[in-house]
Amino acid sequence: MTNFKCPGSHSEWIPPELLSNTEYRFPQAHTDMTMLAGLSQEIKNLKNDIVCKLPFCLTVEAEAMGADINLDDKKHGPRVRQYAFSQIEEIENIPKINFHQGRIKAVLDSVEYLTRQNETVALNIEGPFTILSSLVEPKIIYHAIRKKNKSIVPGLERIEENIIDYALQGLQKGAKILSYADPVGGIDIIGPKMYQHHSGRVTYNILKKLTDTPRPAVIHLCGKSSTALEKTGFSLSFPMDRDENQTYKEAFFNLINEGKRTRIIGHSCFHQIAWKKRAPKIWEIRLNSPDKNSASK
Prior knowledge:
This protein has twelve helices and nine strands. It is α/β, with parallel strands linked by helices. The chain has one domain (30-296): TIM Barrel (Alpha-Beta Barrel), CATH 3.20.20. A seven-stranded mixed beta sheet has the order 1-4-5-6-8-9-7.
């Protein structure tokens, strides 16, 4: 296992200069399919990247599950205006996402549009606690965890199902990469024991389901998530064979185009794809089987 220091945010924020120098405006930049796709291409070109990344915030899934999101915040990006639930017991009622309406539909339509433009598309997926923290006030969540409130388990299971469905929808629309992170559910925030029982367990279940999909993809785990999974026994990591003279961009692009099976990559930051310097090690993450990890049962 490698040490990992997070260099910044998982989300693909919109550079202010693009909003100042183009026709793109808030809040349409987050809701209009054409603007979403166009901005993604603009950001890719600005950063000399090889991947179009969507969406541009951490709140798309939570909004589709009932959170009231304020989109018109140019300085900080979309933020929760009102939580969907006021008590932890209510999260058992988290609805199944309707992918035929709202902002989540616009994001998926943008994935499909960009794929038809021969772009390589990455769909950013948020983990369970990041979504949950936009559905109910975080202090209520942590109080429920400390008190071992049983309602949190079925609530997280509903979120887990929604995340899997969203990821599969993205793959069906043509995304070749799923970028996954759960910054609010990090092991440094909720602790190793609660990570095993909740955040890590749900992440394991999601990854296990997605590696079984018949549509090949690359799942790029945030380094904080991948190292936490390994520390708590959910996974192992192995350095991949590669040309050491390649940049991270070149090595990752070859991996995308290999397309033989779904692979999980971790212990690094997804933003490294745009780097021109020589690639660090690329780590493949392999999930432990349930019988080797009691926490995942």
